[in-house]
Amino acid sequence: MRPFKSLIPLEKALKILEGALNPIDSTEFVSIKKALGRVLSEDIIAEMDVPPFDRAAMDGYAVRAEDTYGANNFEPKILRKIDEIYAGDVSDKTVQMGECIQISTGCKMPPGSDAVMMVESTDHVGAEVKMFKPVHPKENVSPKGEDIATGSIVLKHGDVLNPSKVGALAALGIKKIRVYEKPRVAIIPTGDEIADLGSELKDGQVYDINSYTLSSIVEENGGIPIKFEIVPDRKEDVRAAIKKASEYDLITLSGGSSVGERDVLHDVIEELGTVLFHGVQIKPGKPTLCGIIDGTLVFGIPGYPTACLSNGYRFLLPAVRKIARLPPSVGTTIKARISRRVVSSLGRSQFLTVKLEGDFAHPVFKESGAITSMADADGYVDIPADVDLIEAGDEVEVILLM
After folding, report:
1. How confident is the prediction for the chain on average, in pLDDT?
2. What's the confidence (pLDDT) of residue 1?
3. Nearest residue to 188 (alpha-carbon basis) of 218, 223, 227, 217
4. Where does the chain hold its CATH 2.40.340.10 domain(s)?
5. CATH architecture, range 10-26+181-323
6. Whether pLDDT at 311 is above 70
7. Is the domain 333-400 a CATH 3.40.605.10 member?
8. What is the fold of 55-142?
9. Residues 40-94: pLDDT tens digits?
10. What gap in Å lies between CA 103 and CA 61, rounded to an integer?
């Protein structure tokens, strides 16, 4: 056993991590059907007007505005209806003085008309339509290019595509766009004590949990997880796995990051590259390790499932998002009262999982090896390193888990 040489505060670890990460530069074309959540790698400049013509903004009648001047409830203006147009229709008739055309919202304004009289302000008998109020030119008309004008920058480089931005692309008739590629993240499980799902457990073994929880974090935050086979706790095997993963944008290993005789990750990273930090003042997850090998960031995360997943949220999540050029994740928070006294470790930030019931947050952390410490939780309380006690009934901020 080798004791940790030193532990660094969580804030310092995150700052080191931030400085070591480089956003991805490679790009690809994708269909807008698959564009949701992707990051634009170029400006989108409109090559057409939206709408591409003047169109009715209301159901009613396309009129010449001057024909309605002076209209009121007692002396309506009477116009002759010469046509009816519905969604997708275009009239080939020109509105002359004293005439109107019945029109539906979104239809192209017919020639000769310059306003729409809302149907609520009219009455009709046969072809005669009474107008009970005046309208001015362009009233109830959406002009050509009102939404998007030709030559305007519709979306900018670095924009994250949400449903409305995808809608803007569709409005321009764009089927494919250039976006940044998703970062590929190698997920390498280590340890003789874990087994593949579906295999028969040997005495002393448990199923591999961490590959799936970490892969979920990667996928949910804009990355592509690449799951490796389980690697034994031998230096040559860990070294070979890391070298094989060097083609990817980020490497994450679960297990082997502590200071036991079989925890060889520190030595391997030190041989192949540089250790940035090893040991963080957090609970759970103290044996977190971070290094760089040939420009690629390598994470070593504790093997116990709760420690692994909580550190996945604290370290892997922001790392993947930065590489993917996504904005930092801002977790939804709510206020609640802690249901019982919680004693924390002074000098270590604690990730305390809680279940919400009414106004109360009930701690559900069991121990670092219990995945239900996370599965049963609605969120967590991030207890600062300078707080060693939270009394029952104290108000806490709960960060909701995704």
Report:
1. 94
2. 47
3. 227
4. 333-400
5. 3-Layer(aba) Sandwich (3.40)
6. yes
7. no
8. Molybdopterin biosynthesis moeA protein; domain 3 (2.170.190)
9. 999 999 999 999 999 999 999 999 999 999 999 999 999 999 999 999 999 999 9
10. 5
CATH homologous superfamily of 27-50+146-180 equals Molybdopterin biosynthesis moea protein, domain 2 (3.90.105.10)
What is the pLDDT confidence band of residue 368, given thresholds at 50, 70 and 90? confident
- Residue ranges, CATH 2.170.190.11, the chain: 55-142
Stretch(es) of the chain classified as CATH 3.90.105.10: 27-50+146-180
